[in-house]
Amino acid sequence: MSRTSSNAMASPQDSRRAGIIGAGSIGVAFAVVFARAGWRVRLFDPDAQRRAAAPAEIALRLDDLTRFALIDESAAQIAARVEIVDTLEAAAADADLVQECAPERAELKRDLFAQLDRAAPAQAILASASSFLAASKFVDESLPGHARCLVAHPGNPPYLVPVVEIVPAPFTSAAATTRAIALYGEAGLMPVRVKQEVAGFIFNRLQGAVLREAYCLVRDGVASVDDIDTVMREGLAPRWSVIGPFETVDLNTRGGIASHAQKMGPSYERMGAERGQHDPWTPELVAQVEAARRAALPLDQWDARVAWRDRQLMQLARQRKTASNKDADTPNSRDD
């Protein structure tokens, strides 16, 4: 990869352009995401050393994706779509989407969005990769383009964890939100709309709930760090890699999630009370969740879906066994 884009194989997404502000791990990962989708990418960081290091980091990630057959073109073709630029203005020029990946500091983001609003085309979406800060914390409504500003928080790394949380501010236009969802979908991600600005959004609130309890279990002498990781890795994680927590309990109990809530809800409420948390599963709340699950899976299809889940877990178990055997047969192999 050079500091200027070279000609690359034509792609259906060749007309799309992304500007990325920040060449840390998330910025580099987003460059891989957009370039892999066929977009032209301009990547900027105010630190010259970061700009210099980015091409090699992108190449390394693309080489690993090649090794695992996760890209359809050569690494060189994808890398050629990424241009390292020396100014924020150059990154934002002609962009359909500008992805800010700066540190989690409101004042810094406020200044960056003011600059981006001046530099980016009027139709460009201005998105922050913020993990906890909502857009209304760093975008002023006095900003001329405030209606196109929002948060797009990715999983890490986004080229392997495709979910991206789209979090509009109260002042973000519906059109901008819809366009952002469409653009991230075109880039191969899985956009999820967060309906309210809450700290941590969905991803980190769920992750935080698990981490808080994990820390408490260690503090209270219930289990070791390694044993807690084992329960997650070998217990919860395999199921959650196939289905989410609502579908998990829906399939765990004959009669579905309403039956699970009736049988297990009081126990979960007592566990929450031990931590000073009072969030009972009210009949109205359970009915809302049950309606969503029954719309997705009628009860007459429950047995078939349970069998599907088990086959998915079998496939996962086979893949893990194969990978384990391969690692055991390859002395001094690099860690994956």
Automatic annotation (TrEMBL):
Residues 200-287 form the 3-hydroxyacyl-CoA dehydrogenase C-terminal domain. Residues 324-336 have a biased composition (Basic and acidic residues). The chain crosses the membrane at residues 20-39. Residues 317-336 are annotated as: Disordered. Residues 18-196 form the 3-hydroxyacyl-CoA dehydrogenase NAD binding domain. Keywords: Membrane, Oxidoreductase, Transmembrane, Transmembrane helix. Pfam families: 3HCDH, 3HCDH_N. Belongs to the 3-hydroxyacyl-CoA dehydrogenase family. NCBIfam families: PRK06129.1. PANTHER family: 3-HYDROXYACYL-COA DEHYDROGENASE FAMILY PROTEIN, LAMBDA-CRYSTALLIN HOMOLOG. This is 3-hydroxyacyl-CoA dehydrogenase. It comes from Paraburkholderia tropica.
